[in-house]
Design brief:
By secondary structure, the chain is an alpha+beta fold. The chain contains four helices and seven strands.
Length: about 180
């Protein structure tokens, strides 16, 4: 059994999924993971499918060097409207969501009520290739794979807030203003 960085608060109501040495860039995968954190599973899968089709964008918040500005990123209030459509990272995370969904079905959980409670992306060991340069030199040509793990939790139905009959408390300042208005008329 593999150890996760975090354990679920209620293991009976949660499912896990993880991938090792995934051949997709760490930096873009981290941004994709942060974009779907806290989303319902159906909303997250639709969002990632839209990212692959370039209908929605992933906001780039931390690793944003050399990233272009796009009008779609204005919706996320990122610094400088920076965003991208990391297709490979989005498909890898989409596959992990699909795996978590099938784990939930096996466990007997309600798939439509799953929420991405926790998602983490770690750097994996770099893989080495070589590129040939001028004057007979050779330079390293490295790739930056990643490990991704996620925990999805089944949420309860939303309960509406009960109405209180008690009057709201007012500050002394507001009460004094109300008295002054009534006394002045």
């Amino acid at each position: 059994m593999v150890r996760y960085a975090k354990e679920a608060e209620n293991p009976a109501k949660s499912v896990k999924a993880r991938g090792f040495h995934l051949r997709t860039h760490f930096k873009t995968s981290r941004e994709v993971a942060q974009a779907i954190k806290g989303m319902h599973i159906r909303k997250a899968t639709k969002y990632l499918k839209d990212v692959v089709g370039q209908k929605q964008i992933i906001p780039m918040r931390r690793f944003m060097g050399g990233v272009g500005r796009h009008a779609q990123a204005k919706a996320f209030n990122t610094a400088g409207s920076l965003g991208a459509w990391p297709k490979k990272s989005a498909t890898v995370v989409l596959d992990l969501l699909k795996n978590a969904e099938s784990n939930a079905e096996v466990k007997g959980l309600e798939v439509d009520s799953l929420v991405v409670e926790y998602i983490q992306v770690n750097r994996a060991p770099q893989m080495r290739r070589r590129t040939y340069r001028a004057h007979g030199r050779i330079n390293p040509f490295m790739c930056s794979p990643c490990h991704i793990e996620m925990i999805l939790t089944e949420t309860e139905s939303i309960v509406s807030k009960e109405e209180d009959d008690a009057p709201k408390k007012k500050s002394k300042k507001k009460e004094a203003r109300a008295r002054a208005r009534l006394g002045g008329e």
